[in-house]
Amino acid sequence: MLMPRQKTPDLELPILGGGTFNLSEDASERGTVVCFYRGLHCPLCATYLKELEKRTPEFAERGVKTIAISSDGEERAQAMAEKIQAKELRFGYDLSLSKAKEWGLYISTSRGKTSIGIEEPALFSEPGLFMVTPQQTLYYGSVQTMPFVRPHFSELVGALDFAISNDYPARGEYTGAV
């Protein structure tokens, strides 16, 4: 389990347009929003990522970078980026399932074609949303077992405003006896 205020697992993978995303080197003033999505086969992911694309400039205004990541290969990641008309949002691809498990993501098995007629991969990770500080420690985390009921990016932007103005620390860090 990832713990707030503790270092997250390393994360390095290729990004669309060339180059490599490396979380430990993703220099930003206040951190990075890492959005793990299920893949091209998921129509809910497309809707969700469209909202992240829309909010990416708002995160940038607050000194926060964004990236969407899946275990899809480059071709499917490119198709998702095109589907949501991404201009600002970075897309990482080829996430290994072992790395997904390090981040605490749930893994699902294929059920064949989805409602939009795209085949699910044999195995893929379920959604997760993380805010990681520039020191690569966990500030916020949410993982899901299903594609439904995800955190709203507008609320995360508002929470960032509160956290910035109040120097609000990451919570949930206690690991002692209860």
Can you describe what's shown?
- By secondary structure, the chain is α/β, with parallel strands linked by helices.
- The protein has one domain (29-166): Glutaredoxin.
- It is 28% helix and 21% strand.
- The chain is built from four helices and nine strands.
- The chain has helices at 43-61, 74-83, 97-102, 153-166, and strands at 12-14, 20-22, 31-36, 64-69, 90-92, 107-109, 123-125, 128-132, 138-143.
- Strands 5-4-3-8-9 form a five-stranded mixed beta sheet. It has a two-stranded antiparallel sheet with strand order 1-2. Strands 6-7 form a two-stranded antiparallel ribbon.
- The longest helix has 19 residues, at 43-61.
- The protein is globular.
- It starts with 11 loop residues before the first strand and ends in a 12-residue tail after the last helix.
- 32% of the residues are buried.
Which short descriptors sum up this protein?
single chain, 178 residues, alpha/beta, Glutaredoxin, five-stranded mixed beta sheet, two-stranded antiparallel sheet, 9 strands
